[in-house]
Amino acid sequence: MTQYDNLLIENMDDGVTLITINRAKKLNAISAQTAIELQDAFAAFDHSSQRVAVLTGAGDASFSAGADVNNMPELWRCVPTVGITTEKPIVCAVSGWCVGGGLVIAMMADLCVASEDAKFYYPEAKLGLTQGMIAGLAGRIAHKVAMEMMLLARPVDAQRAYQAGLVNEVTPKGGHVEAALAMARELATMAPLVLATLKRFVNEGVLAHGPTETLGRTRRQMEVIAQSEDIREGFAAQKEKRAPRFIGK
């Protein structure tokens, strides 16, 4: 199993994989390397026999403080349904602050459990910047609550997030991971093909995709070609003046 600098991975016998962003001293902010590691870890999960993933952050202070401003990531890489392409269920377990890119990840996951001290916050309107993917929030929770979070940059607590539909379950402080694992274990007993089909139908046919989501998906698809064996074979064949032998990988 791959070892990561910024993640902890635990594959459990019940078919659940626990992925922890392990940067507690940085409030689990997502650096460039962290985004790449998350994308890689979820790709490995997708190709494994594991059935459900739970994503959380180390410690109780923060699920994620969003992008690491000292080492800016390509955030699209670690956003479910954008850079993370698995059709298996993803459950987020949130405690403390869930900010910016962390909020985007939580909203794009399939299910979310939050401890009672969780705070969901999107501050970009106060900072004068945005990557735009947060626009999808308005298609996933009550419209006016989403606009309040985006335009007024007001933090929303766990209970209000639950009422708005951003969170499935609120737990006492410190209970979020166990509750998310329990939910994941329940999912792991369900028919995998049905879960994958329903998730695909929802993501492809029900939920609206904003421009930044579409751009991220396009970048992911172009990157698959750019990093393929076929592109290396094509250039090598041209250089060697021979017919290429493509393998579709």
From TrEMBL:
Pfam families: ECH_1. InterPro entries: ClpP/crotonase-like_dom_sf, Enoyl-CoA_hydra/iso. Keywords: Lipid metabolism, Lyase. One of its GO terms (biological process) is fatty acid beta-oxidation. The keyword Lyase applies. It comes from the Bacteria. This is Short chain enoyl-CoA hydratase.
